[in-house]
Design goal:
- Four copies of one chain form a homotetramer.
- By secondary structure, chain A is α/β, with parallel strands linked by helices.
- The first copy, chain A, has two domains: 13-174, NAD(P)-binding Rossmann-like Domain (Rossmann fold, 3-Layer(aba) Sandwich), CATH 3.40.50; 181-301, Orthogonal Bundle (N-(1-d-carboxylethyl)-l-norvaline Dehydrogenase, domain 2).
- The first copy, chain A, has helices at residues 23-28, 44-54, 62-66, 79-86, 92-95, 110-121, 135-141, 152-162, 177-205, 210-217, 225-236, 246-262, 268-284, 294-301, and strands spanning 13-17, 36-40, 57-58, 71-74, 101-104, 126-129, 132-133, 144-149, 166-173.
- In chain A, the strands form two sheets. The first copy, chain A, has a six-stranded parallel β-sheet with strand order 3-2-1-4-5-6, with helices on both faces. In chain A, strands 7-8-9 form a three-stranded mixed β-sheet.
- In chain A, helix 1 (23-28) links the parallel strand 1 (13-17) and strand 2.
- Chain A is elongated.
- At the A-B interface, strand 8, helix 8, strand 9, helix 9 and helix 10 of A face strand 8, helix 8, strand 9, helix 9 and helix 10 of B.
C-alpha cells in the first residue's frame, strides 16, 4: 500500500513567523543557502534585528512574509495566535499560494489545528503540526525532536527543512497528533513534578531529609526525569532558574486534559494535574518557571524541600 | 555534638524470620561465617529446606529463633504480621534478650513500627525499620538499597550485617522514616505508571501509535523509570511478567497516603493514586503484577497500549 | 439605563423542532391558538403522529418548518444536533427569516451556542439558549423552569410563548448563560449522587444499615435533593426507574467541566465528578438511568446500598 | 432471636465531662431530678460556674466526677481528648466502677473508640459512641439527633438519659458506628459546600449572577441543605457567622476518609474533599467557620459569590 514518496520540495523560499526564545535559534539554522529566508515577528524590531544579523529579509506583514514561500513555519505561544494570523488585511491567507506547506511548530492544540488545516486546505495549502522538544539549547544546537501530525507524504516533502533544526523527526499521526503528543509529554512532566514534591514533603514530615529522600528515590523505582534532573539542580538548590514558564506548562496540561475529555478517555490523574497547575500558575504568576510549582506544595505542607537537616544525613 | 560511634556488635548469632521471595535470597548472604544463622518461616518446610540447603538452623518458633541472637531480622508482607509475631506463646518477646537489635526489613508502616519499637524498647531491644529496594535480583546479588529508620548509633552497630545484602545503607531518620520513604518511593512509581498509561491512551486517541508516543516521551521531559523500563518491556510487549504484586504496591501507596494524612500534608495526587490502585487491585486480583494496573486504564479508555499501528510509524 | 421593553412579538406562527421525551409535551402546550404550530422531527413518523393528534402541521424539513415562523424552538439531545440542522439543503438557514427569534431549549453547551448565535445573527435572527428543568412531568404540566441566556429584551418578546410551558422563566445572562447554569445544576446533582453513595458505603462498612444512615443524614446537615428524593425511592428500593439517562447527565457534567476549564476556574470536585460519570456511563451503557451510577460505587466497595440488615435497625 | 430488653438503669448519678458549646446546653437538661449531676471541665472555672448556676456538683478531677456515677457522658473536641482522660492520676479509670455505662458524645473516630471500649470493657464498663447533630440550638432545645454505636441493649438502659437532650435516638450499629455515621454526614456536608461554591463560580464566569444561579438551583435537582440554607444566609449575604468551626469539619472529613480507606472503599470524591478542607482549614485558620471554606474557591476562581450584578436579574 506504500507508494513512492513524493520528491522533496524545491525550497527556494522559506518564511518563518515568530522569533521568540525557541523560534529565533530555530530560524537561524534556516538563514543559510540553499533557501532564501523571510522572517516576520509581531514586534517588528526583533525581525529587523534578526534580518540584519543574518542577512535575510524581514517582512512587514504575515502576507508579505509568506508570499512566494514554498514552506511557511510558525512558532508562536499558542494556536490562538496562529489562527489570528490567518485572516484579515495583511494576514497569511492574503499572501499564501496553493501548494505551499504550512508547518506549525507552536505547542498548540489539536482542535484549533484542525480548523486551521481546514481553512488552509481550502486554498490548496497543506498543514503539518510540528511542535518541538529540546528547549532553547536544543534549538541552538539544531538537535530538537519534532513531533509531526499530518500527511506523511507532505512531511517527506519538507523533511529536509525540518532536519536543519531537528535531529529526530517523528511522524505521529494525522493533523493534531503532534500537538497532542507534545501536550501529553508535558502533562506527564507536570504530574511527575507535583508527585515528587508531594512525596518529598511527606517523607520530610516523617523525618527524612529531602536530600536523602531524593538520593534514595533516584536510586529506586520512583525516579523520573523530574526527580533526577530538575529537583537536585533547581529545587534542593533553591535556584529555580526560569527556563520554561509555568504559564506555558499550565497551557499544555490543559490541552492534554481537553484532548482526554474530547476523546472520552477517563484520566483522573491528568485532570487533577490540570487543576493543580492552574492553581499554581495563578498563585505564582506569569513569570514563574514551571518547576516553581513545587512552591505551592511546600506552602500547603509547611515544608521546604531543601537539604534542611544536613547533620542528620548518614548515608553509607 | 557527634560522639564516637559505638563498636559494631559481635554478631555471634543472627535470626532471620520470613523467607519469602525477597527474604530468602537476603538470608542466604548471612548463611556463612562469621555469624551463625537461625531461620524461621510460618510455613515450616520452607525454613527446613533453607536450613538443609545452607547448613544453618531452622527454629520451630519465633521465640526459639531469636533466643540468644544478637541481631534479629524480619522480612514479612506487612507490619501487621511483624506485630503479630511479638506476643503470645512462642512469640518473639518470649525469646528475645535485652541488648538485641531488631531490624525490620518489611515494607511496613510507620505507625505500627512505632508501636513495635515501644514494645521492644520496654524489654531493652532496639528497633530499626529497614525496608529494601532492588527486587529479587538485588537481593540475590546483595546489592539492595536499605532505608533505615531509628537510632543512627544502633544502625552503626549492625551496619556490617546489613552490608552483607545491601550495597547502599541509608540512614533516613527516626523510627518509621525508612518505612515512610519506601512507601513514598513506591507511591511515586504508582503515580508514574498510571500517568504514563493515561498519557499514552490520550495520545493514541489522537492517532499516535503507543510505540511512537513512548519513544518520543522517553527522549523528552515526560520520561520516568516507569516509561523507560516498565512500559517498553512489559506493556507494549503485552508480557506483563509477575515480579512485584499489585496487592503490595496498593498497600504501599496506602501507607504513603496514610502518612500524608497523619502529617497533614495536602497531597491530592497521592490520595487519588491510592484510590486508583485500590480499584485496580480489586479489579485485577491478588495475583496481578503491579504494572497490570495499566489494564484498568486501557479498559476505561477502550484503548490497548500496544504497537497497534506499526505501518503508521515513520520515525526519522 | 433601562429602556422600555419591546412589545411581544405577534406570534402568528411557531416552529418546534425535536419531539422527544421533553420536547413533545412542551410542544403540546403550543398546539392551540393564538399561534399556528409547525413541528419537525428527525423521525418523520413521530412528527406526523403529533400533527395528526393535535391538529397542527408537520414539516418535511427544518427549512419548511421555520419558513414564516416568528419563533423557532429547538429541543434536541445536544448542541451538536442543533448546529447540524442549520446549514445544508433543507436546513434552518434556508428557511428562516430576519427578525425571527430562535429559542434553543436543548441542554446544550455555551461554546456551540455562541457559534450558532453568530451564524443566526448574520441573517438577522436573535438567539436565546433556554434549557428547561422539571422533567417530563414538568413538561406535561407546563410548570418547567426555563433558564434563558441572551438579550433580555428579546426574552421579553417571546416570554408569552415560553410561559405556555414554563412556570418560572429566569433570565440568566448573555448567550450561553442558560446552558451553563443548567449544566452546573446537573453537575451538582451528579456530585451529590456520587458523594451520597460513597458516604452510605463507608457507613455500611462501619456497620450502619444504609436505610438507617439515610434516615439520619436526611435529618441532618448532609442531606440533598439526591439523598432525600432519589435514594429512598430509587436506590434503597432497588427500583432504579429510568427517567433521565446517565448518558445525558454525563454530557451535562462534561459541559460544566468544560466551561470551568475555559473560564479558568479551578474546580477539582467538578472535574473529578466528570471523570466518574464518564466511567459510570461507559460501564453501565447508554440506556442506564442517571441514578444507576451508584451501582459503580456499590461494585467498587463490594457493598450494596440496600436495607440489608433490617433487624439491626433500632431507631427511637 | 430478640430477647427482652434489660431494664433501664436507675440513674441515681450522672457524670458529664466537657462543658463546651454543645456540652454545656446538653448538660443543663440533666441538671434536674431524678438524677444527681456531677460535672467536670478542663478549665475548672467553667465547671464551677455551671455548678453554681444549676445547683449541681463540680468535680475536681475526672476520677472524682465519675466515682459512683451510673452513667458517664463525655463531650470533647476529639477522641484523643477522651482517651487522654482515661489513665493517669485522677483519670477516669481511677474512679469509674464496673457496671457503669460510658456514653461518648464527642464527634470522634471509630478506631480510637474501639481502643477506649476495650480498655473500659476490661474493667466492666460498657461503651457507647453517641455523637449528636443539631448544633447549639438543638442542644438548647433538647432536640438533638443522637447516633449511637455499641450494644443495643446497653443503649436501651441509658435511653431515658439520652432522651433528655435528644429527640431522635438512633442505634447505628456496633461500637464506632455512631462516630462513622456522624463523620460521613459531615463529609457529605463538606462536599456539598465545596461543590456548590465551584458551581456558582463557574456559572458566574458564564455571566450568571450568583443570586440568580442559587435561586434556580434551589428550585432544581442540584439543591442541597448547603445550597438552600447555608448559601443564601451566609455566603450571598457575606455574613459568614461563626457557628461551627472549619477546623472541626476538617477533622470530621478526615475521619470519614480514614474509615473509607481502612474499610477499603474507593471513595475518590471523599478523599479529594478531605484534601480540600485540609487546605481551606490551613489557609483560613482555626477560628474560621466551616462555610468560610467557600472563600478558598472564590479566591481560586477570582470570583466573589455575592449578588454582584443585581441589575442583570430578570426573573419572571
Amino acid at each position: 500500500m506504500q507508494t513512492a514518496p513524493p520528491a522533496p520540495l524545491v525550497m527556494s523560499r522559506v518564511a518563518f513567523l515568530g522569533l521568540g526564545a525557541i523560534g529565533s535559534p530555530m530560524a537561524r539554522h534556516l538563514a543559510t543557502a540553499p533557501s532564501a529566508l523571510v522572517v516576520w515577528n509581531r514586534t517588528a524590531q526583533r525581525a529587523e534585528a534578526f534580518a540584519a544579523a543574518h542577512g535575510v529579509t524581514a517582512a512587514r506583514s504575515p502576507a508579505d512574509a509568506v508570499r512566494g514561500a514554498t514552506v511557511v513555519i510558525t512558532c508562536l505561544p499558542t494556536s490562538k495566535e496562529v489562527e489570528a494570523l490567518l485572516g484579515g488585511p495583511g494576514g497569511i491567507l492574503e499572501g499564501i499560494g496553493a501548494g505551499t506547506v504550512f508547518v506549525d511548530c507552536t505547542s498548540g492544540d489539536p482542535e484549533t489545528s484542525a480548523r486551521i488545516a481546514t481553512r488552509l486546505g481550502a486554498v490548496g495549502v497543506s498543514f503539518l503540526d510540528a511542535p518541538v522538544s529540546g528547549g532553547t539549547s536544543g534549538a541552538e544546537a539544531g538537535t530538537l525532536t519534532v513531533m509531526v501530525g499530518g500527511d506523511a507524504g507532505v512531511l517527506d516533502q519538507v523533511r529536509p527543512v525540518l532536519q536543519r533544526f531537528g535531529q529526530k523527526i517523528v511522524h505521529c499521526g494525522p493533523v493534531g497528533a503532534g500537538h497532542a503528543l507534545k501536550a501529553v509529554n508535558n502533562a506527564m512532566l507536570a504530574t511527575h513534578i507535583w508527585a515528587t514534591a508531594e512525596g518529598l514533603a511527606v517523607a520530610a514530615k516523617a523525618g527524612v531529609d529531602p536530600a536523602v529522600a531524593l538520593e534514595v528515590i533516584n536510586a529506586s523505582s520512583g525516579r523520573s526525569n523530574a526527580s533526577m534532573n530538575l529537583f537536585p539542580e533547581r529545587v534542593l538548590s533553591r535556584a529555580f532558574p526560569r527556563t520554561f514558564r509555568l504559564a506555558l506548562l499550565d497551557k499544555d496540561v490543559g490541552i492534554a486534559a481537553d484532548v482526554a475529555r474530547a476523546a472520552r478517555v477517563p484520566a483522573p490523574l491528568l485532570q487533577l494535574t490540570a487543576e493543580l497547575f492552574r492553581l499554581a500558575h495563578d498563585a505564582l504568576g506569569d513569570a514563574a518557571d514551571h518547576v516553581e510549582a513545587v512552591k505551592v506544595v511546600e506552602q500547603w505542607a509547611h515544608q521546604e524541600l531543601a537539604p534542611s537537616a544536613a547533620d542528620r544525613w548518614r548515608g553509607a
